[in-house]
Amino acid sequence: MLGAVIALTAVGLSLIFGVTGIVNFAHGDLVTLGAVIALVFALPEGEVWGAQGLSMWIAVPLTVLIGFAVGALLELALIRPLRRRQVGTVTMLVVTIGLGFIIRYGILIWIGGSPYTYPVPIEIQGSYLGFIDMTATEFRAVVLTLLILVGVGLFLTKTRLGTAMRAISDNEDLAESSGIDAAGVYVATWALGIGLAFSGGILQGIVTNVTWTMGFFLLLLMFAAVIVGGIGNPFGAMLGGFIIGLVITLSTALPVISDNPDLRFAVALGVMILVLLFRPQGILGSKERVS
Amino acid sequence: MTTERLIVVTGLRAGYTKEVEILRGIDIELDDHEVVTIIGPNGAGKSTLIKAIFGLLTPTAGSVLLRGEQVTGKKAHVMVGKGVGYVPQVKNVFETLTVEENLTMGAYLNRANTASQRDRLFEWFPMLAERRTTRAGKLSGGQRQLVAMARALMANPSILLLDEPSAGLSPSNVDEIFNRIREIKDRGVSILMVEQNARRALALSDRGYVLDQGTNAYTGTGRDLLHDPKIGDLYLGGR
Fold first, then answer.
1. The pTM is what?
2. Cβ-based contacts under 8 A for chains A and B
């Protein structure tokens, strides 16, 4: 399940980097923001500021739509003006770190430091496909994530806009020379990337709980997924996400890690280093061509 | 009635940094149905000129008129919309995209006719049709050049800017590329090209310009430049 969430959020991170060249350090906190907005929509009135008491069936799609809008707005209102002033890569990176801080501590002020659960019934674990033990909700969440990822894959390969995203990611000058208005595609990429981040946050919140740092802790794992899969290749990020998630989940079977859960992250990054030692360009990454 | 001036470049200045100016006041014209070649030694600013006309580089001074319309400093994707196509010298294909996807991207602004235009080009370039699902990064230099030309032609341009189309290709590929350029010309597309292979290029050009150190050195018809002994010695590597 963790793998599915990492895959879903890492795709957005990878797309935004591939297309716009920006390493978005706020991505983790945007995952949290998605989970929190859905939570606030769904919690009964009075529990937190702004709670709406909506059904999850309304709260979730509404939040994902807000995610698309937040992504587009970030590009138009923050990233684009900075790019116009020819702000460098490192400055941009620090800007996204700052943005992450603002979102994270904004959420802390909003919902406080204690964890929340969505108003969905608690279930006992069942067995699926003969060997996978998870709750019905988890199982549905994994299936839904896979469907979303297939949808993203089809979007990237079968639609004009999706192909344009890959084209810009491959060679921006040539894309401009082909008549593609990169600025418009940037907005669409941010919208898609943050929409996926919000979806990942909601799914993670449904199967575990919602805390103000949930996405921030995922950030490093998303980066690991992107790097393992091959930087700039969105399909690599999906694959990397599942690999990292699977390794973390399996590693908890080791007593030393189940006693010290924080070691899971070390295991995940260990896998990343191992992959890089043998395949520096990532699993699905292509070698840099010199000619 | 005078022939329509497609492109008129006047006093164009440009460079990659503020300190180093590569183009130092260039004047160039391209007429309807004309093939014009720009030759000159390495570092003369040939490729830079093409990029500055096409909007990949913003000129610091001077003007570019397209059919009388001021287009100086317009972005490349806008120029594509105005019927100008461009084939870069290096990085001329989307390596991670298939041949077919490369062509589709070329017709980004020509959405309605993408499929029919693609079929026409596949008919024209059968080699590409055979490799439509191959990633362009796996193709040879000559094949890439064909993909790049076909990509630029997908938008149905009236003007094609070619940056060193034969650079780095084997002799048989060079033949094919120059034959293709002739075919493109015969289909009514005006061509402005920069070429190292100056003799071949001038032979199929109506006119030529010689650039040296960012300024115009000589100009004349393709035939005159080819047979001018001074230009032969200085820029065509002797006889």
1. 0.89
2. 78
